[in-house]
Amino acid sequence: MNGQCLILLFSRSYGKKRLHPVSSRRARGKRLGVRGGRRRSGFLLLEVVLAVFILAVAMVALIDSLGRCVAAARSVQCYSTSEILLANKCFEFSVERSDDILDQDGQFTDYPGYSWSRRLESTDTEGLWKQTVTVYWYERGQVASDSVVEYKYLPDKTR
After folding, report:
1. How far apart are CA 144 and CA 30, in angstroms?
2. What is the pTM assigned to this prediction?
3. What is the largest CA-CA distance in the chain?
4. Domain range 46-153, CATH class
5. Are the CB atoms for 82 and 114 separated by under 8 Å?
6. DSSP label of 157
7. Which of 120, 125, 131, 124 is nearest to 159 (CA)?
8. What gap in Å lies between CA 77 and CA 85, rounded to an integer?
9. Which of 137, 140, 138 is nearest to 82 (CA)?
10. What is the separation of C-alpha 9 from the centre of its chain, rounded to a whole number of angstroms?
11. What is the DSSP secondary structure assignment for residue 154, as one 8-state letter?
12. What string of pLDDT tens digits covers the 159 residues of the chain?
């Protein structure tokens, strides 16, 4: 029985078991539940639509997370730049003279889009002044800022 197998069939008319030789291809088709002994090829339209939908949802999530990563990196870059600019401005104001202006504002020429302000306020203690240096910039359409507050002893300074 080359290339054939035996299938056990029940005959209703005789009530006896009979063996019938069947080709292996047909037997395989019956075991797999495929009609006519042929395998179906390809995917159903529903399976393809579902796969495309899952892929589209994954791509939207990936693009959204990539946009958030770029925005976070830009924000970190702006804050890093503001820290450097604050350190430079605080160093400029480290030597205070009695005739210096109390409140000042300006732009950074090397860094367009960044501006600064300096506020010098007297405290309850004589000769002690509170200096606030702030750097401003625009981030996502809103003004962002970073500040440094220092206390200085300036006995000759007057309001």
Report:
1. 72
2. 0.60
3. 125
4. alpha beta
5. yes
6. -
7. 120
8. 12
9. 137
10. 63
11. -
12. 454 544 444 445 555 555 555 555 555 555 555 555 566 678 899 999 999 999 999 999 999 999 999 999 999 999 999 999 999 998 988 876 666 777 889 999 999 999 999 998 888 988 888 999 999 999 988 999 999 999 988 887 776
How far apart CA 64 and CA 72 sit, in angstroms, is 12
- Please identify which residue in the block is written with the tokens 């035996």: 6
Report residue 155: phi and psi, to 5°.
-70, -25
One-character DSSP codes across 93-131: TTS--TTS-SSEEEE-SSSTT-EEEEEEEE-SSTTEEEE
Q: Supply the DSSP symbol for 20.
A: E
Q: Read off the tokens for 123.
A: 């405290």
Take residue 1 and report the two structure tokens written for it: 């029985």
CB 129 within 8 A of CB 120: yes
Q: State CA 28 to chain mean position distance.
A: 51
Q: Give the list of residues 6+ apart from residue 112 with CB closer than 8 angstroms, or none.
A: none
Of residues 88, 140, 93, 144, the one with CA closest to residue 119: 93
At 37, list the tokens.
Answer: 């002994």
